[in-house]
């Protein structure tokens, strides 16, 4: 499988504070990668760096062979990377349908359209005229996912999509994932819920204090490995 | 009685002009939280552009709009992308200072170019024409101004809530980072918002220039009227801005009726009363 995304020695800073230290990572087409790690390990920073919300050295992030580290987020979006941001972050002044439509703004061709999103999450069609903030947390997360899908990305990044949701809702969201990545889309899933993340992914990276502490195929890493990598303890 | 009805009607129609002053301010603030101190001077700049166009081409001021509107819109885009975007950030002070400087520059450039003599746009007689409604004389120009204001606000409302461009404006206004993730380049979106605002400024400037004489120094006063209309109506509500303009206009004409020297003060007093009673304006935007 060809490499879709390649990080080489990615450093990320917030002012004087360094959040990521020389990350090397490879994502191949069609893979589902889980990114796990404790709070403050740098997972969201990683998402912000890939999506262009955080500027990096151009060469640090390569997408389809092209250096994209220094591009703006809108340019990265047009190349086919979409982010479902942590905390959903819908546009409050826009209705449900308008939130989805604005996701399609980049105008890339593909499987996903309003119709396809409504087929995936039928409840959204019933609520399409409502203000996005009037929905429940789970429904808002569906809008956030649908909004990212509308861009027909080649690579979709999910940042903590289960955060703050009830278990039954989380199951509903995760049940929808195979229907998404089944379309040949490559995905990176950031999760604190390790079991959930591992259940849908083929490979896993564990971050700890801005560095990769573990990497491997989901089936091959043991619980002990993960515990050690997650908490940074030698057991 | 009919005398006072006339005063009120005049005030309402005057409010249309103030709403046009305010609409651009409201739009810019709504989309990018930019308070444009140079707004009034841009209105006067548009009036002078109208003057040059009408004198050079010998056309009616309304026809001059065909040139002044696109030129002002283009100027708005370049101004936003070239200068104002650089001032936007977490701190609200830089845009205030830069637009204040811009205001000084525009005033002085106009003074150098056109001198301080009061000028006026020749509307070909419509300034003095009136229609008689049962003893009540209504000026044609004020009536047209009001109708244009309603049309402009309806148009802006349509753009904001029914088009992809407006969706982009609202999205960027809500959350700049996430809007950027959706492929919206905020620098460009802000440029378009300023272009739209200055197109409205062009209309306001031409109508102002036909209604009264103008000189390079009066921009500040128009800015205040625009601000007052926005605040009275409630921030972020375009129809509220029209209502704010009308309230300000009526207060001024009533004041002028009591005593001609009382006109401007009466408007400010009405503004202060609204600000004291309803600090968010009469029709603040309802956030979902």
Walk me through what this model shows.
The complex is a heterodimer of chains A (235) and B (288). Chain A has one domain: P-loop containing nucleotide triphosphate hydrolases (Rossmann fold). Chain A has nine helices and ten strands. Chain A has helices at 43-51, 73-79, 96-103, 114-120, 122-126, 137-149, 167-181, 194-200, 223-231; strands spanning 3-14, 17-28, 32-37, 61-63, 66-67, 81-84, 155-159, 186-191, 203-208, 211-217. In chain A, the strands form two sheets. Chain A has a six-stranded mixed beta sheet with strand order 6-7-8-3-9-10, sandwiched between helices. With 288 residues, chain B is mainly alpha-helical. Chain B contains eleven helices and two strands; from the N terminus they run H-H-H-H-E-E-H-H-H-H-H-H-H. In chain B, strands 1-2 form a two-stranded antiparallel sheet. In chain B, helix 1 (2-32) crosses helix 9 (219-233), helix 2 packs across helix 9 (219-233) and helix 9 (219-233) packs parallel to helix 11 (263-277). The model of chain B has no long low-confidence stretch (mean pLDDT 94). At the A-B interface, helix 2 and helix 3 of A face helix 6 and helix 7 of B.
